[in-house]
Amino acid sequence: MLNSINKNLSPSVDLVEDTTVDSSIKITLRTKYAQESFFYRLILWFRSLFRKKNAESIYNDDIISALARRVNKNHSGLINHKNRILDSLFYERLKELKESADFFKPYFNTIMDSPGEFYVFLSSFIIPELVDEINTTADPFSLGFDVEPTIEVKKNLMHRLDDLLENMGRTKKSVLYEALNSINWLKEFSELPFVHFISQFTNITRNFYTCPYKNAVIDYDKFATVFTNVQSVSNELLETIFLFSHRKSLSKNVSNKDMENAVKEFLRIANQNLSCIQIFISSVPIIKIGKIINDNFDWIPENMTGIENWYPVFQSQWRKIIEMRWSDWVRERTKNVLSMSLLSDFNLNEFPYCRERLWASL
To answer: What b/e sequence results for 182-215 when a residue is b if at least 16 CB atoms lie within 10 Å of its CB, and e otherwise?
Structure first.
């Protein structure tokens, strides 16, 4: 089904961070100050005497003001530095983003209910060879029914599973980690505090909303963390997100054609929303505005929390699966042993049907 979908599908929207970031804003204020001419630094020193602030603080104010002028020139309508407010265009961009976050959020609610299940589900799509190896080597159903279900046999299967997972290879592990990182980025985006941030904007005149810098700082910093750690999300990962949330439907009487159409429609809307996200990334200079509203040239966003603890969750879920498969295998083996006994001892292929319940009178 997925091959059929992907064959006629447009490429996914690649999310790309703003590549126009001026290298001069990546250095520290102190380094930048040291690079200024002696004459300018002398002027700053004289100004510091009158304003009772150190020269570097005054220099920070000058640099922030110059940065705000450049933002106003290149991205008009986002900020009004004279009044120290985020302007109405920023508000409109924020509302558009919220619609995209609202689209993706329900899918992540499902994923976070059972992250281990999702990790295994994802692995079956992007590294199916690992799943095949586990099914062949560690699945109890790879054993014959003539094998006794002892504790040692079960331990041996678990040991094989752990060995396969721990030695899956750097390439497989990297592919899975990068996929989880991309999905985690989209999850973090969908969980940003849109409602709170938007509520900080007040209606000055008709359809014109603004937000003071001081009210925006806390929420803006969270947004900046996400938008300076952008990860692209491929169609394959989007398909996995959709199919996982509808995995119960896959086992019911849903035709392949209906599911194929549903996946295609989801991908169409998902990529529209990714395009909206990319427009925000391309039109809002996140780092520059962050420095401006924090009034600090040395301000930088925090690193986004990753999914470094994914492996123990992934391993634990696989062990649960093998545990359940063991119970199923023991049950099927018991049925098989009984069937063999019926055949050998009574020449019956199945238990005879009793029309009367003779034990009822006992």
So the answer is: bbbbbbbbbbbebeebbebbeeeeeeebbbebeb
Rounded to two decimals, the pTM is 0.86
pLDDT digits (tens, 9 = 90+) for 210-235: 999 999 999 999 999 999 999 999 99
Measured distance CA(339)–CA(349) in Å, rounded:
7
On whether the CB atoms of residues 116 and 165 are closer than 8 A, the answer is no
Q: 197: closest CA among 180, 183, 217?
A: 217
Q: Which residues pair with 212 in a beta bridge?
A: 85
| SS3 (DSSP) at 80 | strand
Position 254 confidence tier, pLDDT thresholds 50, 70, 90:
low
For residue 345, with 0-12 CB atoms within 10 Å meaning exposed, 13-18 middle and 19 or more buried, which class applies? exposed
User: Could you give the CA distance from residue 137 to residue 166 in angstroms, rounded to a whole number?
Assistant: 14
Neighbour count for residue 284 (Cβ, 10 Å): 20
- The number of beta carbons lying within 10 Å of the beta carbon of residue 64 is 21
Q: How many CB atoms lie within 10 A of CB 245?
A: 18
Residue 236's nearest CA partner among 114, 128, 312, 102 is: 128
CA dihedral 36, 37, 38, 40 (to 10 degrees): -80
